[in-house]
């Protein structure tokens, strides 16, 4: 009798346990970035930011609509390629994700945004800066960094007013990001009364820049701006050194990584490079960012490259909207996400305008000394 009773009690306990588990709400968060290819170090940095956020949310035991949420990260690799990016986006849509963080590049984020919009799935990019990303009228599209109009224009003005550039050359990699930020930089130079003496282009997989650099050398530039990523900027800096071009080298967030000195193989002079990150914290908020970087290093044994903190904040902003809406269903929490205002993240205060852009986005200007990145200033 006692054995039968134990069996019954055990069976009931198992049923109750199963029922409790079935009450858990599974929330799938997609992340897309280039985790293979030349800028895989940047894509992996972003993905680790998402993993850290997901792990912490699960440890906190977040509840949404009265149910304990179990967060799952569905990570995809787009290799920085637009076609692979839209394929990854469709895969996440087919997997019925509740939201997407990504993509890293503007060139993949822009075409992917239509896929998410058609499916009604919110997308927050932590790093896509091309203005077109939020100009297609999609209600599902957001970003937590300033765009290239702000970034490129600020760098253009800085090259003239602070670096005192008299003859400025511009190179871009013909991607949506690289060409876009270079165009805005050129506008900023001209608006500040500066002179652009040459405009050249390459591609995002190139390794030999001898022809375009030789052409520019004859124009004696004192500043060279490159619109593109660090994997191309590093070899370009090496070849500038070989050709005896001692100009200041400028770029946007794509080159502004911890990896750039290695990619340039020690050819960068102290203070030669000036770049901007499309985000920034100052004052009391700086401690939150410093604490995040220490936690990230302790967890993964690698330093933050650029945008892991922005990915981390993007995940948490999305989940905060779900909690407030009492639902992880995209159609129900999307209107709440759009009204986000005053969210305190490690990257600063996050609020979205009617296009999905971050309000009052900051920029951080950096240079490099002794192979280390050093902050110059935060500007808005």
| Name of the top-level CATH class of the largest domain | Alpha Beta
Principal-axis shape:
elongated
Gyration radius over CA: 23 Å
pLDDT < 50 stretches: 1-21
CATH architecture of the largest domain, by name, is 3-Layer(aba) Sandwich
Class from helix and strand fractions: alpha/beta
Q: pLDDT average, as an integer?
A: 92
At the fourth level of CATH, the homologous superfamily of the largest domain is Response regulator
Domain count, please report it. 2
What topology, given as strand order, has the largest sheet?
8-7-9-10-11-14-15
Number of H- or I-type helical stretches? 12
CATH fold label of the largest domain: Rossmann fold
Please report the distance between the alpha carbons of the first and last residues.
Answer: 76 Å
- Percent of residues in β-strands: 15-25%
N to C succession of SSEs: HEHEEHEHEEHEHEHEHEHEHHHEEEE
Helical residue percent band: 40-55%
Signal peptide: 1-22
Keywords: Amino-acid transport, Signal, Transport
Domain Leucine-binding protein: 27-371
InterPro entries: Leu-bd, Leu_Ile_Val-bd, Peripla_BP_I
């Amino acid at each position: 009798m006692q054995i039968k009773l134990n069996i019954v009690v055990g069976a009931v306990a198992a049923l109750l346990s199963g029922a409790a588990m079935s009450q858990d709400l599974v929330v799938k968060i997609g992340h897309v970035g280039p985790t293979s290819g030349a800028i895989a170090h940047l894509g992996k940095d972003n993905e680790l930011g998402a993993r850290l956020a997901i792990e912490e949310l699960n440890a906190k035991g977040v509840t949404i609509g009265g149910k304990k949420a179990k967060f799952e990260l569905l990570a995809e690799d787009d290799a920085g390629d637009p076609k692979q990016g839209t394929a990854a986006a469709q895969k996440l849509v087919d997997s019925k994700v509740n939201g997407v963080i990504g993509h890293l590049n503007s060139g993949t984020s822009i075409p992917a945004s239509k896929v998410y919009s058609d499916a009604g799935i919110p997308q927050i990019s932590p790093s896509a800066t091309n203005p077109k990303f939020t100009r297609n009228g999609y209600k599902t599209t957001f970003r937590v960094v300033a765009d290239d109009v702000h970034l490129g224009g600020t760098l253009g003005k800085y090259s003239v007013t602070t670096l005192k550039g008299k003859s400025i050359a511009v190179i871009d990699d013909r991607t949506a990001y690289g060409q876009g930020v270079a165009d805005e930089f050129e506008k900023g130079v001209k608006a500040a009364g500066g002179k652009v003496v040459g405009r050249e282009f390459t591609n995002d997989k190139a390794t030999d820049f001898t022809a375009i650099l030789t052409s520019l050398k004859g124009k004696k530039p004192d500043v060279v701006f490159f619109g593109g990523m660090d994997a191309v900027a590093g070899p370009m800096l090496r070849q500038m050194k070989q050709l005896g071009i001692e100009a200041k080298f400028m770029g946007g967030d794509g080159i502004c990584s911890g990896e750039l000195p290695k990619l340039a193989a020690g050819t960068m002079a102290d203070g030669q490079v000036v770049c901007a990150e499309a985000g920034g914290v100052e004052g009391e908020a700086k401690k939150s960012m410093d604490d995040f970087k220490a936690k990230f290093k302790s967890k993964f044994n690698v330093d933050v490259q650029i945008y892991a903190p922005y990915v981390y904040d993007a995940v948490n902003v999305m989940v905060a909207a779900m909690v407030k809406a009492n639902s992880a269903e995209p159609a129900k929490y999307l209107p709440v996400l759009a009204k986000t205002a005053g969210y305190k993240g490690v990257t600063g205060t996050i609020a979205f305008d009617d296009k999905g852009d971050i309000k009052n986005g900051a920029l951080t200007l950096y240079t490099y000394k002794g192979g280390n990145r050093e902050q110059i200033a935060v500007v808005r």
